[in-house]
Amino acid sequence: MPLLPLQACLLEDLGVAPCNRYLLCELAEGLEPFLLEQALQALVAQHDALRLRFAGEDGAWRQACAKGVEPRELLRFCEVRGEAEVATRCAELQRSLDPRNGPLLRGLYLRQAGRADRLLLAIHQLAADELSWQVLLEDLQQACGQLAAGRRVGLPAGSVSFKAWAERLEAWAAAPAVQAQRDFWLAQERACTQLPLLAREPAREGQRQRLELSLCAEFSRELLQAARQAYRLRADEVLLCALSRVLCAWSEQDGICLHLESDGRAPLFDGLDPGRTVGCFTSRYPLRLQPTADLPGNLRAIREQLGSVADGGLAYGLLLRRGALAGAAAQVLFRYLEPFGGRRDGPLRLLDAGRWREADALLEAPLCIEVEQRGGALHLRLDFSPSQWQRSTLEGLLQRLQEELRAIRAHCLHAPRTRLSGAAPAAGPAHTCALPEPARRHPEPIALAHGDLRLAQVVLETRSNRLARHLIECGVGPGMRVGLCLAHGMAMIEGLLAILKAGGAFVPLDPDCPREQLACMVEDSGLQWLLTSTALCSRVPLREEVEAICLDLLDAGGYSSEPPNLALRPQDPACLLHAGGAPGRPGAVTIGHADLSRHMQAIGRSYGMTPADAALPCAAADGALERWAADLAAQMLRGLCRRRVDFFAAFLNFFQSHPSLPI
Predict the structure, then answer these.
(1) Are 527 and 544 in contact (CB under 8 A)?
(2) pLDDT confidence of residue 411
(3) CB within 8 A of 410, min separation 6: which ones?
(4) How far apart are CA 111 and CA 96, in angstroms?
């Protein structure tokens, strides 16, 4: 099977030497090593990229995929006495990965007296990228849970095999659309000027030093939210706006060429969606960024320059492999890591994640800049060699970068916000919706239960009211469509209630649906906003005019906790549900507030629910879906339907017609 561009680059630079990604997790009690071994075997059987084998002859590398799962030791167990021994054992495990003969994935079970057991998971970079870890950790959590319950492992299928994607991409490399990009990429290579480094000799991993800059969560949220609302900038675009200005000022150049990375999972082919496929998809490409003198112009210019890259930069690597480009050595490599969305209530709790190479391996670039979000805060890491950079120089650049980000935040907070105006419904008789009284007047201890988490009614009301007021300020009003793409949990319920309280009509979007199906749903429903998270935002293809609101970046604490006062008509849309239809084109049904309210209360009568109920038993053999719907209906009845309210409704029918929704 063909090599993907980054695979070819890694093999050319490092061969089959260790070049791994790792996760370090803390284990819940009762998760035994033999269960983890079985779960890892299930991962290898599920994902063909974990069964890849690499061979090279005369400098030419090729890969093939083993058809069946070979009997391999995938989990090692050891008892350790201190962190020094932990480091030694971990390094031994990293070196044990063998791209020629396998395995490419292996775990180390660490048991140490006086602390919880830990699990180190290592995977060779030839087999997985950053987004692959998301899929692997979700599947591993699910497999462990199934095995612990005495059930057979059943994992959700990926939308396309890695082999099928690699073959299709290789065929696409000869297409006119790729060849037409050659002149653009030639121009980017010519723009790669040299930075004033102390030395030009390549540096090694053993020389690597690191500088870090952490921006507090409050500042990070204000910065990203203000930039998104004022200029519709993504987090990576905001950082590159600041970084390009700093590097150009320091190097006294009018432009700077950076090597950027994208996830390489652009929706190129109908019927092939690599969203849940494990593999080395990452694309890397050079791009000249040319900032302008004024800050507003710079924010627009850098966004346009980043937007000039087609298909996530995939064509650059493909043209480079075919000899159509000369290649340009990276001076500065910029990598933005999407927030890691691992579950916190499962048997594996993430402690650390990173990359591992041998000390004699070459650094990826003289300056590697990596940015990630943790707990809402932005963290920047600069990896460099003191043979090429003075530490004081980089410390000064970090200080200037922080000042640029402060200036962007201050400007965007006071810049006019980009608003989308939706056509208001025709005037008609108003129906006043009696919203529930604050929960403190009708105290109940628990409103929602999810795993080990419990959410009090007053907290649910406060959060959903504040989010609703934020939506209203963004322009949401009666009948306006607001997408909802969130994993099952507290945030999903809060988002649902907030949309309804703001008067909008929610459009549920399953993040596991194929991208082409989601694109049809977005287009058909006429979304103007999308409530989601940073981990799921990229899965939904949005038009330029749709504003994505990531709840994990939003700080709504400044809004009133009182419910908004709205006047709605019973026939106003409450939700837009996509059910069956032509293949690949789901049909949509719009349901009004009054109809859903009646249906909601009928569900309550059928289940015998009262406002005091929090969860109901289910007689079905596998009743996860029914329990979820019953629990949702119960929560909405609790406090929300104390009076005759035509405003709120359950969407049980949607769940019945969409069993693929995460539950």
Answers:
(1) no
(2) 93
(3) none
(4) 20
